[in-house]
Design brief:
Keywords: Membrane, Transmembrane, Transmembrane helix. 55% of the residues lie in helices and 5% in strands. It has an eight-stranded mixed β-sheet, with helices on both faces.
């Protein structure tokens, strides 16, 4: 692709406004959705030019339209100048990015932060909600690092290297074994632990590095500076329009420092606690005992400081906050690193007669984490319920409890992954199952709950399949009514009805999340109680019971570790496919793009937020183009691109927002975002967007599993939602469609004649010199009078 030099239409916000003689210039800014596409496909032209941007995200035009604003060709006034914003490289590219899926619990808990219910006048309760989610995210970091410590320190260095039979089977551990190495320098238990601690330490440093680097690559772009609007100071209808919403540098830096320090303190505590326990035995060295107590006190103080930093401050959104809390960002991780070095030195000190036996004291750690996570989720549910009661939203999922349910799933993912990996490594190290004790019994119990959880999911999927079959039968009559003049083909009707039924299953997602979260909470509580009361693995604890119970316990314990290993393979495989294959991204990528749309407000090690680059890009482009040219502009957003378009529109100044029209199609704005994120995309927020832009039209199909109607309350709906587009365009063969028309579903909305007609009406409504009059009940958006069904849509939509 050619590269064009920056031209006059990309001037800065402070550049004096100038309006060329061509006052009729119109622009259609296309924003693609999940999976991405090429600028050639978006602009329907093989010759495209990059107007502005870089290799990650950029704006393209046709080669013939580079200087459209300066051209004297009157023919350009008949149609808009198409311009494509291509942002797919923010979420795709190298297949190694699929490794981000291993950090899925961090992304999920970050989602829970943004799922809080909408509330008015409950600022302290809202802050408490954010605090509880941040604390839950902190426990997940500690859990991940503790699991790495369990694998490297306990299973490998302490148990396997300290047991001759296990060390003989793994020659790479020979130099750590007292018997194989004949008492070598590294064979001391403390030095083995100190050496193995580099694995969880390296993991913590890697997470810190990735978080810092991805911030610089993706999230360091500042939105246009402006003063907050009056309603923003008073709470407003959505926080997405606040000047600093898409620039969370200060909070991310604080959380990154706190989580890095938490990881280092966890490693230091795992190393020092074993040595301190040895020194506290009767007759132990008094000096080392005192040093151990001082070191543990310092580690406890550092842990308290970490919790305090996480609790002290949330996001600052009312202005672009470029400050950094240097004393926390730099000193806290440095203090934790110093304590880790002291812990390694303390553990590596010579202790004659010290031998490793049994397990490291990890049961209390993992049990305490599980208990704290359960309590945090329960309290979070109470806070969410209180917020929902202050401003009920009937469309909000689970009556406002979507955030706590998702937070529970994040904790479950962390616990299952920790338990499964530990059990899998233990089985690999101890082939006979008799030479080492294995991981803490709680982790084995957590891995054992995977098979019953999968059975529950299979029942859920069976229910969904049955529901899809019922809906498909009901839709057959609707399909026949939609094509009344066509000769009915039973196979064709069945296929269209089945596609509509499968698309409607998206709306059953909240039930799946609710059941999965509830079952997970019960199974997790059962695993915790079983581990604490029996102190035995499920198979051993079930001895002496009914043979069926004993067999089920042993089967669940054996399958748990293997299933988690298979799950890791599937995660990486699906993730790599989603990054490489555009078709796979359209099915797998939507959930991933929803997760990475939101800023990192609860967990700094979550995958980077692409919207902190894309939304400022769009805002700058819209604001500068309308200021310099004074022309008409339609933001045309498909799928996830419609969400970016709405977010960019909220970021515009009120005067600029009134010069812009929105055309969304296949949009999840209400169907996914409005229901799952009611505080930011609820009816009040979408209603305000409808009132503040010049006009907004939304297109959707009943066969689309992602997009849907906006469903604004009251009469506003008549001005936004078009009637459901017919899909396929033709039922059978005819003069216009001699070949069978495909069922388009979520793709190729531009192929429908309604798309061009709606775009033409939007451009005709906009005025090049002055903003158009506000639409009212007497003066609705174009096309509203033809859409009497749009307020209700179809039940399967």
């Amino acid at each position: 692709m050619e590269r064009a030099r920056e031209h006059d239409s990309t001037g800065g916000l402070d550049q004096p406004a100038r309006r060329p003689g061509e006052t009729g210039t119109a622009l259609e800014l296309l924003v693609h959705g999940v999976g991405g596409t090429t600028p050639q496909e978006m602009l329907n032209d093989p010759r495209t030019v990059r107007i502005t941007g870089d290799d990650i995200a950029a704006v393209f035009r046709r080669a013939d339209d580079v200087d459209a604003e300066k051209s004297a060709d009157d023919r350009r006034r008949d149609g808009p100048v198409p311009e494509a914003y291509v942002w797919c490289n923010l979420t795709s590219g190298n297949g190694t990015r699929a490794l981000w899926l291993l950090l899925l619990p961090f992304m999920v808990v970050n989602l829970a932060h943004w799922m809080r219910p909408s509330a008015r006048g409950r600022r302290r309760t809202v802050r408490l909600y954010g605090l509880l989610v941040r604390l839950t995210g902190l426990t997940l970091t500690v859990l991940l690092v503790a699991a790495a410590c369990e694998v490297a320190l306990d299973l490998a260095a302490w148990q396997c290297a300290g047991t001759r039979a296990c060390a003989d089977r793994h020659s790479w551990l020979g130099f750590l074994s007292p018997t194989v190495s004949d008492g070598g320098w590294w064979s001391s238990p403390g030095r083995r632990l100190a050496l193995a601690s580099f694995v969880p330490t390296a993991l913590t440093v890697l997470l810190w590095y990735l978080s810092r680097r991805t911030w610089s690559d993706y999230e360091s772009q500042q939105p246009p500076a402006r003063d907050p609007e009056p309603d923003e100071d008073g709470g407003g209808t959505t926080a997405l329009g606040r000047p600093g919403f898409w620039y969370g540098r200060r909070l991310v830096a604080r959380l990154r420092a706190a989580h890095t320090a938490a990881g280092l303190v966890t490693v230091a505590a795992a190393v020092a606690s074993a040595a301190a326990r040895h020194d506290r035995r009767p007759g132990g060295p008094a000096v080392l005992d005192i040093l151990g107590m001082l070191l543990e006190a310092a580690l406890a103080a550092c842990a308290v400081a970490v919790v305090w930093v996480v609790c002290r401050r949330g996001r600052s959104e009312r202005r672009i906050d470029q400050e950094l809390d240097e004393r926390f960002v730099r000193r806290l991780p440095l203090a934790a690193l110093v304590l880790l070095a002291l812990a390694l030195l303390y553990a590596g000190w010579e202790r004659p007669g010290w031998e490793s036996a049994g397990r490291l004291p990890g049961d209390a750690t993992f049990g305490g984490l599980a208990l704290v996570q359960g309590l945090l989720v329960i309290v979070l549910a109470g806070v969410a319920h209180a917020l929902h009661r202050t401003d009920p939203d009937r469309r909000a999922v689970l009556r406002g409890l979507g955030g706590p349910a998702v937070a529970m799933l994040a904790c479950a993912l962390g616990g299952v992954m920790s338990g499964g990996v530990s059990q899998r490594v233990s089985d690999w190290l101890d082939g006979t199952g008799t030479s080492i004790d294995g991981p803490p019994v709680l982790l084995t119990w957590q891995a054992s709950v995977i098979p019953p959880l999968i059975l529950v999911l299979l029942v859920l999927f069976g229910w969904l399949a049955h529901r899809a079959w019922q809906l498909a039968r009901a839709e057959r009559e609707a399909v026949a009514r939609d094509y009344p003049d066509e000769a009915q083909d039973r196979a064709r009707t069945r296929r269209i009805a089945y596609t509509r039924a499968m698309a409607s299953l998206t709306d059953r997602g909240p039930r799946i999340v609710a059941v999965t979260s509830g079952v997970t909470l019960l199974l997790g509580a059962g695993a915790l109680v079983g581990a604490l009361t029996t102190d035995e693995t499920p198979g051993v604890a079930a001895r002496g019971t009914y043979p069926v119970v004993h067999g089920a316990a042993e089967t669940a314990q054996a399958l748990g570790s293997w299933l988690i290993g298979l799950g890791f393979i599937l995660f990486v495989t699906w993730g790599r496919r989603a990054y490489k294959d555009a078709a796979a991204r359209r099915t797998i990528g939507i959930l991933w793009d929803v997760g990475t749309f939101w800023p990192r407000a609860a967990h700094p090690f979550a995958p980077p937020c692409y919207a902190e680059r894309a939304v400022p890009d769009l805002t700058w482009r819209i604001a500068t183009w309308t200021r310099v040219t004074g022309g008409r502009l339609v933001i045309s957003g498909h799928s996830q691109g419609s969400v970016l378009a709405a977010a960019a529109a909220w970021q515009l100044t009120p005067s600029t927002r009134k010069r812009v029209a929105l055309l969304t199609y296949g949009s999840p704005l209400e169907r996914l975002y409005g229901r799952w994120f009611p505080a930011h995309f609820g009816p009040a927020a979408l209603g305000s967007l409808h009132r503040e832009v010049d006009c907004w039209r939304n297109l959707y199909r009943l066969t689309d599993p992602i997009g849907g109607p906006v469903r604004l309350p009251g009469n506003h709906d008549l001005g936004v939602d078009h009637v459901p587009l017919q899909d396929p365009l033709s039922y059978g063969r005819n003069d216009l469609h001699p070949l069978p028309a495909p069922i388009l579903g979520h793709s190729d909305y531009q192929a429908d004649p309604a798309f061009a007609e709606e775009r033409r009406k939007l451009l005709a409504r906009l005025r090049p010199d002055l903003p158009a009059p506000r639409h009212t009940a007497e003066q609705p958006c174009p096309g509203a009078e033809a859409d009497p069904q749009s307020s209700s849509g179809r039940s399967s939509a």
